[in-house]
Amino acid sequence: xxxxxxxxxxxxxxxxxxxxxxEPAIVLAIDKRAYAKAxxxxxxxxYLRSVNLNLxxxxxxxxxxxxxxxxxxxxxxxxxxxxxxxxxxxxxxxNVGLNIEVNSTVPVAAGLGSSAxxxxxxxxxxxALLNVKMSKEDVFRISFEAERSVxxxxxxxxxxxxxxxxxxLFQMDTGFKPLDIKADVPLVIGDTGVERSTRVQVAxxxxxxxxxxxxxxxxxxxxxxxxxxxxxxxxENDLETLGDLMNINHALLCGLGVSDESLEWLINAxxxxxxxxxxxxxxxxxxxxxxxxxxxxxEQVLEAIQRAGGRAFIAKKTDEGVRxxxx
Length: 327
Ligand code: PMV
Fold this sequence. Notes:
42% of the residues lie in helices and 26% in strands. It is α+β, with helices and mostly antiparallel strands. The chain is globular and about 60 Å long. The protein folds into two domains: 3-180, Ribosomal Protein S5, domain 2 (2-Layer Sandwich), CATH 3.30.230; 187-315, Alpha-Beta Plaits, CATH 3.30.70. The strands form two sheets. Strands 1, 2, 3, 4, 5, 6, 7, 8 and 13 form a nine-stranded mixed sheet that branches. The chain has a four-stranded antiparallel sheet with strand order 10-11-9-12. The protein is built from nine helices and 13 strands. The protein starts with a strand and ends with a strand. It binds (3R)-3-hydroxy-3-methyl-5-(phosphonooxy)pentanoic acid (PMV). Residues 16-17, 19-20, 111, 113, 155, 198, 202, 282-283, 287 line the site of (3R)-3-hydroxy-3-methyl-5-(phosphonooxy)pentanoic acid. (3R)-3-hydroxy-3-methyl-5-(phosphonooxy)pentanoic acid binds at residues 16-17, 19-20, 111, 113, 155, 198, 202, 282-283, 287.
């Protein structure tokens, strides 16, 4: 008998990059989820398997042994999950062997927070299997620690959205604040398939800012105004304004040099197909773009992005954070 838990992926709706300079960003949980199944084993091994990445292996006495796929890649993916499991076992107070199977519908390394969603799902599944009393704050704290072990200094926004769901306003000095948004925010997400590094893109923006401070400072202030205006538009369900603001936000990011040809193709295709607005999401330089469209236009925008060479899917905002699916 196993326990399954799941957690959602995220998109940054507004404010990426500017958030690094202390400005607010708006982040949404989307209805693409990562699933984790936890089962007890008779021995003390921690056995991990990722169905979608075709990776499997186990930790025994701290040593990793690969059973499927590339050993280095498997260790890199599983190490943070081991850390999360150990944290839950610490609260449980007893070391037990476990089988963990991860099955995620979230594209990997595309800026959608797949690793945080997986970590939150694994934490919740193991917690529920062992009857460990854990609040959402506990799940957040543990999955944040797991993220930190891979990413160095992440903002924590990915594990927060994966754990709590919904729409969050995030700012470096004040942290997360849930936004009570009733609007649907119908999005199409287009994945360029171009791998990018958040670190490289953040450094690129810093270079432009250092070279042209008086040009870039007003852009940063504009990004703040976009977010403030977007909060009102979200509350009023004013999709047209949201679309305009997405286009303006994208222009700023483009000006800073973090868009690329692959993103521009998909963004232009989405706009031509009737999207209300489109922008890159996350670090840029590849990865994903998002387009906002009226419900009846979503399919058209989806097809246009696909014709332009992107892997696309329709995504809705979800208020459901981490949850146990089945006990
Ligand atoms: O693409 P992601 O999910 O790694 O998002 C990066 C967001 C940035 O604002 C560019 C960097 C950051 O740490 O906030």
